[in-house]
Specification:
With about 475 residues, this protein is α+β, with helices and mostly antiparallel strands. About 50% of the residues lie in helices and about 10% in strands. The protein contains 18 helices and seven strands. The strands form two sheets. Strands 1, 2, 3 and 4 form a four-stranded antiparallel β-sheet that branches.
Length: about 475
Amino acid sequence: MNAYNAQAGPFFGPALYTTLSQKPLRCRFEFRKNRRTLQTSPAGRVQVLIFLGEEASAPRSTKIETTRPVWENRYRFPNRPDSIDLNTKIEGFRRRLELAHLLLMQEKIGPTPRNLYLLAVWMQKRHQRTGFDPQTEAFHPDAEVQHTFRKEATDLLRGIRRKVVTLESLYGEFIAVRGRLINDNRFTRDGEQISTATYQSYGYRWKLIETFLREANLVDRSLLEVTAADAVNLKEFLQRQVSRYGRPVKHSTIAYTVTFLRQLLDYAVLKGYLKYNPLHAVRNGGKSKASPKPLTFEQMDFLERLDLPHDLQHYLESWLVAAELCLHHADFMELPTMHFKTDPVSGRRYFIHPRVKQRRADIHMYVDVTPRAERLLAKWGGVKGLKYAGYSLYHARLTQISLLAGLRDSKGKPIRLTFGMGRDTGLTHRAMLKTPTLVLQANAGHTSSEMLTKYVDAGEQLLLSQMAQTNPYHPQTLSLQ
C-alpha cells in the first residue's frame, strides 16, 4: 500500500505508520448487486475485503453505491465523471483504512480487520457530517484540531479496545497458569502437571528470549506480528552470545529455547490470540539425542576389580548393580522395596516392578539378577546395603571415579561415567548375548520393541570397534551376523 501524504504534525503520521506496521495491510474492492432491486437493475454497492498479514475479513460494505457498467468501465474510461467519482470514493476508503491502522497502533489496540473496518466507517460518516477530511484533521498543524478529532476517535476506540498481547504479557499468563500445576510427587502427577524443575526451566529459557527481544527492540510488538523469521533470528542471536566464562551457548540450550518459544505460541493459539502457530514450519535440530554409550564387558570387569577408597568403592559397586539390573536412577532408589523371586527351573533370582518414570502407564520391568549383581549384593549384605544418594551426588562421585579409572573409548577419548550409562550398558550387553526380543523388552520396561533398536545398534557398533582392533579387514565388512 502506498503511504499517503500528510502534513508534518506532532504525530508524524507516515513515518510512524511505516515503523509500526510490521504486518502488511492490503484491501480488495468488489462489486455486489443489490438484492432488493429488480433482476435487470445494474445497481449495487462496493464491498471491501481487508487483509492484515495472514488474517482476512469477510466482504464488508463500504456504503459506496454504483452500477455494474460504471464499475466495469472505471479503468477503461477513467476520465468520465462517474468513473472519477467512484475511484475517488474507493481511494478515500482505502486511505481511511490506513489511517485507522495507524490510530489503532498508536492507541496500543491490536489491529484486526474488524477494528479497521469499524474505524474507517466512522471516519467516513464523520467526513460526510463535517465535511473535513479525517487525514487532514488527524495530522493538522493546529494542536486543537488534532485533539478534537483524536478525542472523538478515542471515544469510539474504547468500544472496540483490545489489549495488545505481546510475548512478554503472554509469558506472564503462561507462567501463572503453569505455576498452579506444580506437583513434585511423580506418582500422583497427571498429564498436565509439572515438576518444580520443569517450572524453573521456563524462567531460564525466557531470559534468553527476553534478552533477544530487548536487543532487537521487539518487546512491545504484537503477537500477530511474530513470524518464523523470529525463531531463526533468535537462533542466530544466541549463537553469537557467550557466557560470563567466555563459553558459547550450547546447541541444545538454543534448541530448547526455540522449542519453548513454540510452546508459548501454542498456548497463544489455545487462548485465541492466534489462529495458528507460525513456528510450526521451523525445523529445530540440535537437541541431545538419546544414543547409548555402553561400556565393554572388559571395562565392566575392570571396574569391578578396581580398588578405590571405601566411599568411592561403595558408590561404584552400587552403580554397577544398577547397571546390571538395567535401572534408571529413579528406579534404583526403589530397589530396597522391590520383591525378589527365584525361578524354580534355572534357580536365578528376578524381580517385577513398575517403572517409576512411567508409573501412570502401568509399565513393569521384569529383570533377572546377573552373576555380577549377585556377587556385589552379597558383598554389601543385600540391596539395603547399597549406597542410595541423589542424582547430583552420584554424578559428582562417578566423575571422580572416571578420573581415577582412566577408561578410554575406541578412539582414545576419556570416558566419563554417568548413571544413565549403566542402564545403557546393561541393556546393550543383554542384546549382544542374543537375549530374545520380548525378554529384552521386559528387561527395559518398554511398551514397544522398536525402542530396543538403539541398544541392538549400540551392541553392533561396540562389537565392530572391538573386532576392528584385531581384525585386518575393513570395519564395514564386519557385522553381528
